[in-house]
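Annex B. Sample input.
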Amino acid sequence: MKKISVLLISLLLLTGCGKSCKCDDKSIDKEIGIVDTKVMEKYKIPEFFIKVSGLKDISIDNNFVKDLNVYEIKAVYDNYYNKEEKKFIGIKVKDIMEKVIDKEYYVLFVNDNERLTIGYEKPIIDDSLYLIFNKDKTLSVARFNYPVRNWVTNAFSFELSETLR
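Annex B, continued. Sample output.
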């Protein structure tokens, strides 16, 4: 009898005693990803520097990307707790890499300042992967069709390799 009472109480607690939960987050039903992009014609990007090593040893900075489009990206992203719609400023990683390397296949490893590294194979470096200029003057590499945990915040170096590690 005691087990049945505990089971019944547990069941009532889990179901909320028949009350329905009302969620006020209107973006919860939205798919994560890019909603809209537009080219920022006269946007001055902040000073930045990324060291590239491996298959190519170069530096990416303001001068290197001066002829690339800068985008305002409106996207729904998953920030661990909920989904939000927000605007970002960035450059397509695909456009940067086309200037850096001309190879059939490579892997781009993006490193942050806390020893996190995420690798992107050339086939998945698409129009959803951006180098983002954050308001706090840090850089992120964001793949907008994936949750934030797959982004590299505080990105500071790139490494190019012929293989995944």
